[in-house]
Specification:
The protein contains 24 helices and 19 strands. By secondary structure, it is an alpha+beta fold.
């Protein structure tokens, strides 16, 4: 039995589970699935295990937070639900409980030695010497709010699940014939030609729709002309500018800051310098002798056969390395240095001008100091202001009363949708950029005042004043849009009619080029593409997915009319380029690994589905909809 647990801990499934565990510290045992203190109805029931709303929300929010880190903070909860991530969270919870409950019912127990080995071999807990570091282990658990008992139970639970599924998924094998067939299928390519009838190029219809057609268009497109839900909001938004106005910097504090940063305001003496570089000391000495004899530096360099002089511009004490800087700052105005050696050769310097140094006075840097000090104290002052605001609201003040008492601006929004736009479609000015503002506004009840929330660089609190439900806009307000839609559809119908004439003419024995010429068009070659739309030649222009799908649904020589959105195409398949089996061992190994993983995943899903059906699963959709 211990050997089976060791194998399970090395399997692809266990590695995946334990990897997620280390990253998120977010897996618990069966006891944590039970509703516990959540007195509401269960949202999910698997066998005799009941899942409360709070647990499902935690699982869903964990995934949403990961998405926000990858996609940016603008990714909202509503978008995550729309894209199916709530369903994914439900499925994940059902799978975890199913495996844990089944392992428990079957009497599976993971030995302590197997758990200890996994913990010792976890890279996150190993020191620089590659050995388990207990202090690091305890520190990481503490940082993530877990006890050693919590983490040990989580590892044991994951190992149990992996051991349960290993006999099923571990036998996944990719047959060589399947690997070759799949590789050939994926790498088959097709060539074709197309005549594109661009919808925008079709002359627009004359006149416009009559009243009956316009009304029908309006009724058929109510979903597109319906105004979204709008919410009227009153809010107080605190940002650093609110706090800056409250900060006073005394003259004493300015003077102390000036003294502490005086080095920053001290400008050392500088020099305007010209140099000549020479390949050897003898050449450099000729330059020095000629320059000191009255020749200009350029003439001295030419006489010695050295490089022409370089203007180094303004040089400070630390500008030049090593002995070069010391040599320059030992010279007076007009003086020429002795030859100085560096890694770049030999140097001769002449100082053209000395720029005296000095210390900027407090009056000269007063504004800079004050701005820096206010900036440094703004966040602390902003936090103090948020506490005062929170205390005022907690004491029963309305937003209006609190804003007046603390001299804060009140943000009043007559109507805003979930995207931050006003009823006229323009973005509402003054809204915090933090996504939490709109999500809070659209999760509140009318008349409700939210808790104080952070925005990243500030705070906000809002009250939902009213809700305007979605409603169709009056026909007159969307007349222009509907008339444009009517015209676009007429153009699309005409483009389709042209394409069908081309298709019929080419199908009656004429070439596609000849049929297109009658319509003032010409066919264009399509690049050879694979099933996934990738061109054989990476430099080729991409073609619409509808054309790719059509090419792979046709036989050589076939013609088809394909609507690709902005244009209607008449497509002919001209050649099928067969795909080859994997050409080298590395490609075959990669394909075999992928197919094996896909088969293992299918087996895992079928196995867990069968187990969950045996246990019985109930999902309370009504409660979930209310909760989310």
């Amino acid at each position: 039995m211990l050997d089976s647990f060791r194998k399970a801990s090395k399997s692809w499934l266990a590695k995946g589970l334990l990897g997620l565990l280390i990253l998120s510290f977010g897996v618990w045992g069966i006891g944590d699935f039970i509703t516990g203190g959540d007195d509401g109805p269960a949202v999910i029931t698997v066998g005799d295990v009941r899942v409360g709303t709070d647990y499902l929300r935690e699982e869903f929010n964990r995934e949403v937070n990961v998405l926000r880190e990858r996609l940016g903070g603008q990714f909202t909860t509503e978008q995550a639900i729309q894209f199916g991530f709530l369903e994914r969270a439900i499925g994940r919870v059902v799978t975890e409980i199913t495996l844990s409950r089944t392992a428990h019912d079957w009497g599976m127990v993971v030995p302590d030695a197997a758990v200890a080995r996994v913990i010792r071999e976890t890279p996150a807990f190993q020191g620089e010497d590659g050995r388990f570091d207990r202090a690091l282990y305890e520190r990481l658990l503490s940082l993530n709010g877990m006890t050693e008992a919590d983490y040990t139970a989580a590892v044991r639970n994951d190992l149990t699940r992996a051991t349960l599924t290993q006999p099923v998924v571990g036998g996944a094998t990719a047959p060589a014939a399947l690997v070759d067939a799949l590789h050939r299928f994926r790498n088959e390519a097709r060539l074709g030609e197309s005549v594109a009838v661009t919808i925008a190029a079709v002359p627009p219809p004359e006149g416009g729709p009559d009243a009956a057609v316009l009304e029908r268009l309006y009724q058929d497109n109510l979903d597109t002309v319906t105004a979204p839900e709008y919410r009227a909001v009153t809010a107080i938004v605190l940002d650093p500018e609110d706090a800056r106005a409250l900060i006073t910097i005394s003259e004493t504090a300015l003077a102390e800051e000036y003294d502490a940063r005086q080095q920053e305001f001290t400008q050392p003496e500088r020099r305007l310098v010209t140099q000549v570089r020479a390949a050897d000391q003898a050449t450099a000495q000729v330059v020095v002798d000629a320059a000191r004899g009255g020749a200009g530096l350029e003439a001295a360099a030419a006489e010695a056969g050295a490089q022409a002089p370089d203007d180094l511009g303004e040089v400070g004490p630390d500008t030049l390395p090593g002995d070069l800087g010391a040599a320059v700052f030992a010279l007076g105005v007009g003086a020429v240095s002795e030859p100085v050696e560096s890694a770049f050769g030999w140097h001769v310097f002449r100082v053209r001008e000395v720029v005296p140094g000095g210390i900027q006075t407090l009056d000269a840097v007063r504004d800079t100091l004050r701005e820096d000090m206010i900036e440094a104290r703004a966040m602390d002052a902003l936090y103090d202001l948020s506490v005062q605001l929170d205390d005022a609201l907690g004491g029963g003040s309305t937003l209006e009363q609190a804003a007046e008492a603390l001299a804060l601006d009140l943000l009043t929004v007559a109507g805003v949708d979930r995207q931050g736009n006003a009823p006229d479609g323009a973005p509402v000015e003054g809204l915090p950029e933090a996504p939490g503002f709109l999500s809070t506004a659209f999760s509140a009840e009318a008349g409700e005042t939210s808790l104080m929330q952070e925005t990243g660089d500030g705070y906000f609190v809002l009250r939902l004043d009213s809700v305007t439900p979605p409603a169709p806009r009056p026909l007159e307000d969307v007349r222009d849009r509907l008339e444009a839609l009517w015209a676009q559809r007429r153009q699309a119908d005409e483009a389709l009619a042209i394409a069908k004439r081309l298709h019929a003419a080419a199908g009656e024995g004429r070439t596609l080029a000849a049929a297109a010429e009658v319509e003032g068009l010409a066919p264009a070659p399509l690049p050879a593409v694979r099933r996934d739309g990738r061109a054989l030649d990476p430099a080729s222009r991409p073609i619409p997915g509808q054309l790719v799908q059509a090419l792979f649904d046709m036989a050589p020589g076939d013609l088809r009319v394909v609507d690709a959105g902005s244009a209607v195409h008449v497509v002919r398949l001209t050649e099928v380029i067969a795909g080859d089996a994997p050409a080298d061992a590395e490609a075959r190994a990669a394909m075999t690994e992928q197919v094996t993983a896909d088969i293992a995943e299918d087996l895992f899903v079928q196995f867990t589905d069968a187990l969950s059906r045996q246990l019985g699963v109930t999902i309370n959709r009504a409660v979930i909809e209310d909760a989310f």
